[in-house]
Amino acid sequence: MSEFLYKQKKEEKNKIIQISNNVFIGNQSKKVIIAGPCSIKSKQQLLDTARILKAKGVNIMRAGAFKPRTSPYSFQGLEEEGLNILIEVKKEIGIPVITEITDEKYLEKYIENIDIIQVGSKNMFNYELLKKLGKTNKPILLKRAMSATYKEWLLAAEYIMSFGNENVILCERGIRTFETETRNTLDIQAIPYIKNNSRLPIIVDPSHACGNRYMIKPLALAAIISGADGIMIESELDPEEAVSDKEQTIDIDELSEIINNVEQISNLQV
Ligand code: PEP
Ligand code: MN
């Protein structure tokens, strides 16, 4: 292979990936907003959340069914029950959805009804999973592992692409640094680097980068100004009731403010 598929070739435009009839990622004039709970808790919770997210202008709902947690004693997600809830809610509300699938055994059964498959940061190096995803034609959101270099991250994308699936969206979600006051550190440089060295869309997840509520807005807006194609934020009706990552989950009012601000600054980007 002489030339990597992820690379920007002179004659080529950046990739725009179609998610649904009217949602695209990679179209710089229309930033994509992904939001929702870290974890699916119940059908009612997700239904109420999805309804309001859609009304506030969220383009895609995030909600986790498989939660690869640092501790095996932390909530691991509702797993298949969660996927079924997610698909029911997607159909009732009519909003595209993204969720992580950690095991290929669930792919075949659920892939049809999920709009974007997320590869979590802990699975970025799971090359067997990447190969399986490469054999589908689903949009894949590939999160950067907390210690992955840009090259390792792009080569993980290349794994998916080399098996035939070029619908890869990159997601910067914070890297591990010497700072311990925040969960991770958002690597804002990743945005211009990826834009300069690949043709893939990149979105930013400020929630897992900082791990607290008060930094979400400044980081989200910095990402947009820096050229990110969108943002993914953990948000739910009552953040205090979140079953995972509640410290970084923002309420719908704050999310709504961010959405309005994104709209205002979208054409200011570099
Ligand atoms: C998530 O988005 O829910 C998640 C687990 O993120 P990460 O893989 O980046 O830790
Ligand atoms: Mn989370």
Description of the molecule:
- The chain is α/β, with parallel strands linked by helices and 270 residues long.
- The chain has a single domain (34-269), classed as TIM Barrel (Alpha-Beta Barrel).
- It is built from 9 helices and 10 strands.
- Strands 3-4-5-6-7-8-9-10 form an 8-stranded parallel beta barrel, surrounded by 5 helices.
- Helix 1 runs parallel beside helix 2, helix 4 (127-134) crosses helix 5 (150-162) and helix 8 (216-225) packs parallel to helix 9 (252-265).
- The mean pLDDT is 96.
- Residues 38, 208, 234, 244-245 line the site of manganese (II) ion (MN).
Give me the CATH fold name. Answer: TIM Barrel
Number of helices: 9
Parts with pLDDT < 50 across at least 5 consecutive residues: none
Beta-strand portion reads 5-15%
The strand count comes to 10
Question: What average pLDDT do the residues reach?
Answer: 96
- Broad CATH class: Alpha Beta
Strand order of the largest sheet: 3-4-5-6-7-8-9-10
State the end-to-end distance: 33 Å
The tally of structural domains comes to 1
Along the chain, the helix and strand elements come as EEEHEHEHEHEHEHEHHEH
What percent of residues adopt helix (DSSP H or I)?
25-40%
Indicate the structural class. Answer: alpha/beta
CATH superfamily: Aldolase class I
Overall 3D geometry?
Answer: globular
* Main sheet: strands, sense, barrel: 8 strands, parallel, barrel
CATH architecture tag:
Alpha-Beta Barrel
